[in-house]
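Mods, move this if it's the wrong board.
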Amino acid sequence: MKKRLFFLVLLFFSHQIHALDFIDFSSAITDIFGGYSNDNEGTTSYRSLLIPVGGRCESLGCAYTGFCDDVAFFNYNPAASCILKETQAGFFHNSWIADSNLETLSYTTRLNNFAFGLQLSTFYLPFTEYNMMGERTAGSYYSENYFSLNASYNFLAGYEFKGFALGSNFKCAYRSVPDFTDNDTNEVISNSGLSQSGIALMFDFGLMLQFNFLKYFSSRDPNVKIGFAIENLGIGFTGAGSSFKIDDPLPTYIAAGMSVKFIPLVTAIIDIKQPVNLAALDKYQLFSLGAGVILDFTNIFNLLFGLEIKSGNPKLSAGAEFEFKNTRFNVNYTLDLTSSLAPVNRFSVSARINMGDRGRAAVQHEIDVLYNEGLYYYYNSEWEKAIETWKKILEINKRYDPAIIGIQSAQSQIDMFDNVRNSMFFEQKSE
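Not the wrong board. Structure tokens:
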């Protein structure tokens, strides 16, 4: 009995010490970053556009503008769809603050250098109304809902230069505010929430570049990516059923990011975002910084870590990914000043389904076979056959640089031997 009592007392005090440690930690963070904010924070509408969908993008501290290697690109860089290897479908769930949640469904596919996709997303939280006596009079959900269409194209994509990707999203948004009650009768007023609901139309624009730099390992994937994006560029309206008017400005921002992979197992990513108030440019908000690291232990398992410094609330993220058959799962937890275990929040999960590459791997295999066949002819001095073989590659991919260089080299060999043969002929004739 004494041992059990001692254990309970120890458990109680350890819990209290843990709680105090977390409070001290939160206080210290507030003291350090509390000044990194201004009065213009939170003055835009549709704030859920700034909530990460979850998955690996959140695990990386939302540093995704210059990386974007999966279907979560919709919220970070619309140019990325045309450089994804496979058709992808994704489901994302983010348990945000308290009872608020964000659910997202995404799909994208690629036809050679052109890609398109669509995304459905909804942010929701319970809306409960009480009267002066503390009695519940109404209950429903507040929500912000989005539909996005994406299109992108990778210009001048080749073997050495991976292309100049440009893309755009067109997004429609609807904010649903539930009806509220009359203070005197406690009766729900029909369509009363409509006046505070709203719609918005907006565009995203993105650019991505890929290339090799200081790359000392074998891989066909470029080891450096650079991305730029302008997100949530548009206008919103509210006041339906009463005085229809322009809503508060959207959370527009400009972003730039870069990812590098100098060794096979580690990818490092950085990102910077600058909010822009298009309705009042002088009411600026402070920029945010994000950084992330991916540790690729195997093809089916990796760990991800991220840090984001934004609005006086730094966020630390950690996630794990594993792949089963053609589906990759991600589980993420984010620690910041809003994190809580009662209720549980700041957890996110995602599932990304790889649905094939529309035969691009088979085409690349055909190119590899033809290229090796051309090399065989070249090293056996059968340059005409080598040229003929490599020209077949250019019929498939006119920007396949090794075939172009090989044809030029083989033609040079033919020209050189023709010159030598002609020179010997003239010498014999002069004799």
